[in-house]
Amino acid sequence: MNVFEWSFLAGVLTATAPVLLAALGGLLCQVAGVFNIALEGQLLWGAFVAVVVSDLTGSAWTGVAGAVAATVLFSALLSGPSVALRADPIVVAVGLNLLALGLTAFLMRQIFGSGGTYSSPDLAGLPDLGELGVDVPVLREQSPLVPVALLLVAVMAFWLTRTRSGLRLRAVGQHLDAAQAVGLRVSGYRHGATLVAGALCGLAGAQLSLGNVTLFGEGMSAGRGWIAVVAVMLSGVRPGRLLLACLLFGVAEAFGFRLQGAGLPQQAADAAPYVITLAALVLAAVWRRKATREHA
Amino acid sequence: MYAAELVGVTKRFGPVLANDGIDLAVARGEVHAVVGENGAGKSTLMSILYGLHRPDAGEVRRDGTRIALRSPADAIRHGLGMVHQRFRLFPGLTVAENIVIGAEPVRRGRLDRAAANEAVAALSERYGLRADPSALVGGLPVGVRQRVEILRALYRHAEVLILDEPTAVLTPGETDRLFEVLRTVAATGVSILLVTHKLAEVLAVGDRVTVLRQGRVTGRFATSETDADELVNAMIGRSLAPSAPRRARPPEGDPLLEVRDLTVRDADGVARLSGVSFAVRPGEIVGLAGVAGSGQRELVDSVTGLRGAVPGVFLAGTPVRAGRDPRVAYVPEDRHGRGTAPDMSVAENVLMGAQRDLASRWSLPRAAVRARARDLVDRFSISAASVDVPIGTLSGGNAQKAVLARELTRPSQVVVAEEPTQGVDVGVRERVHDLLRTARDEGAAILLQSSELTELRDLADRILVLYEGRVVAEFPGDAPETDIGRAMTGATG
Ligand SMILES: Nc1ncnc2c1ncn2[C@@H]1O[C@H](COP(=O)(O)OP(=O)(O)OP(=O)(O)O)[C@@H](O)[C@H]1O
Ligand SMILES: [Mg+2]
User: Fold this and answer.
1) Which phi and psi angles does A245 have, rounded to 5°?
2) ipTM of the shown complex
3) What is the rounded distance in angstroms from the CA atom of residue B137 to the CA atom of residue A171?
4) Residues A200-233: tens digit of each pLDDT
5) What residues of A are in contact with residue B110 (Cβ under 8 Å)?
């Protein structure tokens, strides 16, 4: 296999990682019965805080930690009203998505003095695995968060089906009253899932702004959170299928870069991954429904 | 000393006094029945004992000591278990997972599936409650789901087992089976609280019985020293009228509902109904018997048009129209799904489909709607705080009367009723039967599906028995129950 193809595969992984991390958070919420469509906003918020903290401290890992902590706090704005006060999570999430967009743009002007895109030599990005001594071709130029994301898919699958708390979380999501009737602390599980999803979105954001690139741009999440939402809905809450759906987006995005290199107008190349991913995911869902109907 | 006691329990829901100073005590190993009209407060009382509601006044005691119940978790810890009126199971989890959840066996940090399956198998063996531990609950029939709920309580070492209307969803055979199990369980020292509307069951399986009426205790009896009449009197404050005589005149005229050689297949192409033919004339009630899943659902859906315009179904000589043919009055089994829109008001529900008659050119005059709704509520003696409350807050019996009010006042000549008295008390049951008889006498053609043979025999002129999608037998309305029961199992001759 030649270098050209390795680099394509590496591009796929890079593009997949942030979407996958956010989608894992979304999956967790879905399992707990909280329909979380605030992934987009949380991703953007995480990306922003990662850059701010990294810029201030000069340490990418502190940036990651800051992003995780700040996005957990941000997700409390979802879990608080929707779990404790029983507000409609969709309405709350729409508000959060708008808040993230406005707040990052506003704070960006306050902190960096200008809007648009911020980048600086002081801004520390995440190291490549190659620098850390990993000598696998596809991974050499990835941030350490990429293998972490892949690993988390397996961890999530194991945890949901093989552990006590995983079973209980699934139960809570399937039937709230029943979960209460068997003595589970229902809101604890729902809060927990939403907050952990926040942490995963924080990681996703950090990977986006300190891993994939080393900068922050207004609205840089660019719909990845929505792709994650769609992936969750079509995954049938199976981590394996979730990974496939996210990889599909990664392939489409990496392919989009290629097309741009080949002279396709930039707008078309930018739109391509979303169009391809959505079309493919919807087709897959239709096909699956047909298949289950024939087998039922 | 009693295993469990409720002392002076009072519970209010807004203006409704659901429980009013109730005392109830159940001894170790006793089967204690709780009866009362719809809305008498039975479920509320049981929910208090299981920690789902907190009483406004009064207390709960276990083995003589007062206990604080803040949630079902507390109740479980104190050895209480409950089988709910609407099952509380997780459809996507297996039988074993549903049973052990909350007290799962764990080995080296992981869920120990093998141990869970083993424990469940041992329990089902011990109590004769058969259920496959690794089956997904979502695909199981109701009878088995109920076993899962009972096993769950037993797995958590319940010493007081509460069952809220467990037999409403069971066939006669399953009910007998359940009672055997309850006796076995009680013999091991477990106390059982059994809520039911069926007095024959109370007398058959209970040791003692407490009667509730409008939130108060109106009678306490030992079952050996009472009878159905006395219980009814305590429940509704009067005796039941003897059931109306069967009308002598045979129905006549052209059939209003005719089914000719009806065959229905499911999505997989499996025949659910094969070659079903029958006719219902004006002034006739035709009963439909059969064990659950013999094709009743498919037949009802075909006749009402809910299955589309299936060939072979004729209403007054013309083919049925797709999508709920307006010429059919339909009283569905599923009261809160198909029967009513639970979040909408009583007025909206009882007039649903009839609004067109009340509407002016541009609007629906509210005053006219409410006046008409109030009239229906009075005529069908539905007790509701007002016609504006959501119908989902009504007790089961009142919701059912509301469905009948809507359906029987439609200008339809064909009535299809599915389990019209499931989960309703004896008073309402009598009223529902009267309404159906009146509709019949006014010339309606009625198809009545019921799993209660007594009900079919009380009302129907003829009884058809469905078995595996075929009509395997037809009986006159007064045929012996044993004959009908035998035909239901597919036995011929
Ligand atoms: N959560 C609730 N909110 C408001 N009112 C309620 C609630 N639960 C019960 N009620 C009211 O309290 C009264 C008692 O209801 P409950 O469900 O205990 O009756 P029941 O005896 O179980 O009746 P049924 O035989 O129909 O099941 C009814 O008038 C009912 O409308
Ligand atoms: Mg009840």
Assistant:
1) -60, -40
2) 0.84
3) 12
4) 999 999 999 999 999 999 999 999 999 999 999 8
5) 162-163
Domain ranges of chain B: 4-236, 243-327+412-493, 339-410
Q: Do A182 and B92 count as a contact with CB atoms less than 8 A apart?
A: no
Contacts of A184 in chain B (CB under 8 A): 73, 101-102
Domain boundaries, chain A: 6-225
Question: pLDDT confidence of A296, banded at 50, 70, 90?
Answer: very low
pLDDT of B357 > 50? The answer is: yes
Q: Supply the CATH classification number for the domain B243-327+412-493.
A: 3.40.50.300
Q: How many CB pairs under 8 A join A and B?
A: 66
Residue A249 C-alpha, separation from nearest chain B C-alpha, in angstroms = 29
- Choosing from B42, B218, B403 the residue with most ligand 1 atoms within 8 A of its CB, the one to mutate for a pocket test is B42
> What is the Å distance from ligand 2's center to B45 Cα?
9
Q: Which of A19, A16, A14, A34 is nearest to A172 (CA)?
A: A34
The neighbour count for residue B106, using CB atoms within 10 Å, is 13
| More reliable by pLDDT, B413 or A16 | A16
Four-CA torsion A41, A47, A48, A53, nearest 10 degrees: 140
Q: Note whether B89 contacts A184, CB cutoff 8 Å.
A: no
Residues in A closer than 8 angstroms to B138, CB to CB, are: none
DSSP letter string, A211-242: II-S-EETTTTTTHHHHHHHHHHHTTT-HHHH
pTM for the full model? Answer: 0.79
State residue A146's pLDDT score.
Answer: 95
Q: Which atom of ligand 1 is nearest to the CA of B398?
A: 26
Highest mean pLDDT among A76-90, B47-61, B160-174: B47-61
User: Which CATH superfamily does the domain covering B4-236 fall into?
Assistant: P-loop containing nucleotide triphosphate hydrolases (3.40.50.300)
Does the fold of domain B243-327+412-493 match that of domain B4-236?
A: yes
